[in-house]
Amino acid sequence: MAQYPSLHDRVILITGGGRGLGRVMTLALIEAGARVLITASRSPADLDETLAAAEALRPGACRTRVADVTDALACEGAVAATVAAFGRIDVLINNAARPAYEAVKAAPGERQMFWEADVEGYRSMVDANLVGPFLMARAAAPHMAKAGFGKIINISTSRSTMVLQSGGPYGACKAGLEASSVSWAKDVEGTGVTVNVLLPGGPADTALIQGAVGGRAIPNFQAGKGPLGQEGMVSGGLLPPEIMGPPVLWMCSDESNGYNGRRVVARDWDPELPPAQAVANAMQPKGGPPLVM
Known about the structure:
- The chain contains 8 helices and 7 strands, in the order βαβαβαβαβααβαβα.
- It has one domain (5-282): NAD(P)-binding Rossmann-like Domain (Rossmann fold), CATH 3.40.50.720.
- The relative contact order is 0.13.
- It is an alpha/beta fold and 293 residues long.
- The protein is globular.
- β2, α2 and β3 form a beta-alpha-beta unit.
- Strands 3-2-1-4-5-6-7 form a 7-stranded parallel β-sheet, with helices on both faces.
């Protein structure tokens, strides 16, 4: 029997599903029995590659759509396409993001003053990484509330990245997204909809990090096996994006019903543990007032 029977035919929309963390989550969910529509704005070839991989797992379970999350009509269209293809929308995963290097032109480790950031790159990143998730949630949440069930999962970053020197607006957008997630979680209380956050727990080997993708992950890294609470601390390489698979399955399943306004760190999720123990390790305590400085 599947680990999460409730994922059978669950309908999920994932933005930025063509590569990186989005592709990992898409394929994990397809394999678990879900039906998924993925979007991308600038890389239709990546969508095709993910679709081909999904078809090899379960033919007909995946759809693709080119959609820019900064465009409100495109977001509404992506939700409408999901409902048209699969009859409803159960889960929205806000994963699409633009990398810091689009605004910060300094090489890794090089210092760049904030006033030297590219203005258009700065604006486009805020639009994609902060406004975009709002536009997608704005389009999806009414469908979920009407059905009395739905899950919004916002993909975030480590807290150290939020205040990284010469990090441009990337970290600030993710901090804003987490603050938005707390606010949205309060808004949807009592509707059957929940809002939670998932993050790798450190820089992952994806295109968001400059350099050739693949081969940069920490050799033989195993999530949940080392000390817990090491968010943002990595050495010897980057985190493998595959660590996002196990926690996203739980977060999309009925096992996570009732959890609202919570933060899950993928690097602390041990897939060899029963889900109740794995989530106890990976879910951070519910916070009080936000602390940034």
